[in-house]
């Protein structure tokens, strides 16, 4: 495959910056779309292969022309935090604006999330594959999961009506240098960490796995969803054993013991005011012991994990 021009939304984010670097390493030109030009790394300024477009996706006059000049669009922009209103704006409204700017038939690689799976009905120890049940429009989940699920449905429906070739990637919890904590580990309270589960794998995705999948999907079109996960997935106990700076006191506490309190809290307070761990559906989604399948990623994109989890963690903290 020859050099491509890749338009990358959310280019200033953690995955975005690493994806721009991975694309340039493969010889592809990049149109980097980001909200604020000042967020662009210094290294981009001297790279003639990177064109920066600054603007909010919901109101970016330069976006249609930029999309028309790209061979493939990689849609990474989404909100990882904030209230439901902000997440809906930065995830759903931004996606609607991008889709409206795409010429018919545009190739699109959409970064979804493992959070779109419906964990409320998964059995303990189940294997999560691309055919596992997804969150529907009325499902109870946290704001990030519900918006990512709605975003994925929006992308899929639009692709069918406008002829877009779309690859949907569902990465797990992305980790790498400067990004080592995730919500699957438990609850940190000062010097104490409540580890709410011991069994089950953490659905991890090293940043090199994530960017490798994004660029491979741009180079070699594939249809349908693909779980993007490492092969060497640790338990929470193994992860914490390799994490420098873990709170000195780790208290194991079965998440099922917290569930009655979460259910009681949900009857007393509005759900939007409850922390995630006191919302039954969020508690279950984060700590239910599960296994995760990445065979489609390996077969379709040809990605394999070259290093052990311990080696990747050592490098990330080096």
Automatic annotation (TrEMBL):
Cellular-component GO terms for this entry: cytoplasm
Residues covered by the NAD-dependent epimerase/dehydratase domain: 7-223
GO MF annotation terms: aldehyde dehydrogenase (NAD+) activity
InterPro entries: Epimerase_deHydtase, NAD(P)-bd_dom_sf, NAD(P)-dependent_oxidoreduct
Pfam family, one: Epimerase
Protein's UniProt name: Nucleoside-diphosphate-sugar epimerase
Source organism per UniProt: Marinovum algicola
């Amino acid at each position: 495959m020859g050099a491509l021009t890749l338009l990358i939304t959310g280019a200033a984010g953690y995955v975005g910056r690493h994806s721009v670097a991975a694309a340039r390493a493969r010889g592809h030109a990049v149109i980097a779309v980001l909200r604020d030009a000042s967020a662009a790394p210094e290294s981009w300024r001297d790279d003639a292969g990177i064109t920066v477009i600054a603007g909010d996706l919901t109101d970016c006059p330069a976006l249609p022309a930029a999309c028309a000049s790209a061979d493939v669009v990689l849609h990474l922009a989404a909100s990882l935090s904030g209230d439901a209103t902000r997440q809906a704006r930065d995830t759903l409204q931004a996606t609607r604006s991008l889709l409206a700017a795409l010429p018919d038939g545009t190739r699109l690689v959409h970064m979804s999330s493992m959070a779109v799976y419906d964990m409320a009905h998964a059995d303990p120890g189940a294997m999560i594959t691309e055919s596992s049940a997804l969150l529907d429009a009325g499902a109870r989940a946290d704001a990030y999961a519900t918006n990512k699920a709605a975003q994925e449905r929006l992308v899929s429906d639009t692709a069918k009506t406008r002829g877009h070739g779309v690859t949907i990637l569902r990465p797990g919890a992305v980790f790498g240098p400067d990004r080592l904590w995730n919500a699957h580990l438990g609850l940190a309270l000062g010097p104490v960490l409540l580890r709410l589960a011991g069994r089950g794998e953490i659905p991890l995705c090293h940043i090199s796995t994530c960017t490798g999948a994004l660029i491979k999907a741009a180079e070699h079109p594939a249809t349908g969803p693909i779980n993007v996960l490492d092969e060497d997935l640790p338990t929470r106990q193994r992860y914490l054993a390799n994490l420098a700076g873990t709170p000195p006191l780790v208290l194991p506490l079965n998440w099922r013991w917290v569930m009655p309190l979460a259910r009681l809290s949900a009857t007393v307070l509005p759900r939007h005011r409850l922390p995630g761990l006191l919302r039954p559906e969020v508690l279950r989604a984060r700590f239910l012991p599960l296994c995760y399948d990445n065979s489609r990623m390996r077969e379709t994109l040809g990605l394999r994990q070259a290093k052990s989890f311990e080696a990747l963690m050592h490098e990330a903290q080096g």
